[in-house]
Amino acid sequence: MEDVVDLSRSSGRLLITGATGFVGGRLARGFADAGFSVGALLRAGSSADCLDPRATILRHDGSTSDLHGLVRAFAPDAVIHAATHFVGVHGPEHVAPLIESNLLFGTQLLDAMARCGVRALVNFGTIWQHFESDDYKPATLYAATKQAFEDIAAYYAEAEGVSILTLKLPDTYGPEDRRGKLISALLQARTEGRQLALSPGEQRINLLHVDDVLSGVRVALDRLRGAPAGTHASFALRGPETLTLRELVTRIERLGARPVPVLWGARPYRAREVMRPWEGPLLPGWSAGVSLDRGLSELIETP
Ligand SMILES: NC(=O)c1ccc[n+]([C@@H]2O[C@H](COP(=O)([O-])OP(=O)(O)OC[C@H]3O[C@@H](n4cnc5c(N)ncnc54)[C@H](OP(=O)(O)O)[C@@H]3O)[C@@H](O)[C@H]2O)c1
């Protein structure tokens, strides 16, 4: 057994990628609150305007050697890799950013970690890696790049002894979500009374609050701490409820005592729409703590 990250030390050092994004931003704030020294690894052009001010900003120029230098200088106990390029239905213009952000950057990061002796990584996957299947079956090219990164990560676990835990997420939601995803669009339509064009709405959705991603990462780091070097595993995180999109809208209407104007069926289901989210093995020792009613009510009350 090798201690890869000591969570009992409030002086622990965590390097977070994607800290200007939704999940990474919540993680940076949560771990800074808990007394960790947080490093935020940003690309050259990223805006740090919404980043927690306690985070140390490390900007990388895109080269592998620069990343090595930054990881060596910050010397984290563990890395949380939340950077991604997401696209639901890709076009030709998305191929390069998907590969650059979801494969190249992550591989450079793992290489820097291995060379600098950083031995613990929490990574994120997506339930879309399992389109109607417990086996790997990507719903989208984005999901395929997430799987490809896990396959590359297996090399760094096997050959370099980096311990890696991948948390596969469903749709996430919560405050300070600037991604313009489903929940934000529904709440905006509700507030503005503007009609929102949606699919027929029979697809089932699982929603995980971003605070529960934070609690999942804490459990994952703890698990890595007790794991043998080179551990490589993936688990699901899942919100407490899975419901259809129509049921979700009805729920928001009930909680917010106001209609959400939706034009059902104004848009087709997308190609390979996930109608039934994958329910893989949950991260041991973790369960979601934020009920859907509580998470939605807080967003309705504080838009
Ligand atoms: N949220 C969900 O519903 C969901 C569902 C399934 C899986 N996941 C996974 O959860 C993780 C977090 O997702 P999220 O929703 O928080 O993402 P997000 O809000 O879209 O944020 C993406 C972050 O990645 C950064 N980034 C992108 N390309 C980069 C690169 N080449 N180098 C460095 N940074 C780069 C962005 O920085 P810039 O400021 O430079 O743009 C941004 O901070 C990802 O691994 C995602 O695949 C999320």
Helix-strand layout with pairing:
Elements: E1 13-17, H1 22-33, E2 37-43, E3 56-60, H2 64-74, E4 78-81, H3 95-116, E5 120-126, H4 141-160, E6 163-169, E7 171-173, H5 182-192, E8 196-197, E9 204-209, H6 210-225, E10 232-236, E11 242-244, H7 245-256, E12 262-263, H8 292-301
Helix pairs in contact: 1-6, 2-3, 3-4, 7-8
Bound molecules: NADP nicotinamide-adenine-dinucleotide phosphate (NAP).
Write a structural description.
It comes from Methylobacterium phyllostachyos. Residues 15-230 form the NAD-dependent epimerase/dehydratase domain. This is Nucleoside-diphosphate-sugar epimerase. Belongs to the NAD(P)-dependent epimerase/dehydratase family. With 303 residues, the chain is an alpha/beta fold. It has a domain at 13-174 and 207-239 and 274-289: NAD(P)-binding Rossmann-like Domain (Rossmann fold, 3-Layer(aba) Sandwich). It has helices at 22-33, 64-74, 95-116, 141-160, 182-192, 210-225, 245-256, 292-301, and strands spanning 13-17, 37-43, 56-60, 78-81, 120-126, 163-169, 171-173, 196-197, 204-209, 232-236, 242-244, 262-263. It has a 7-stranded parallel beta sheet, sandwiched between helices. β5, α4 (141-160) and β6 form a beta-alpha-beta unit. α1 packs across α6 (210-225), α3 packs parallel to α4 and α7 (245-256) packs across α8 (292-301). It is globular. The structure holds NADP nicotinamide-adenine-dinucleotide phosphate.
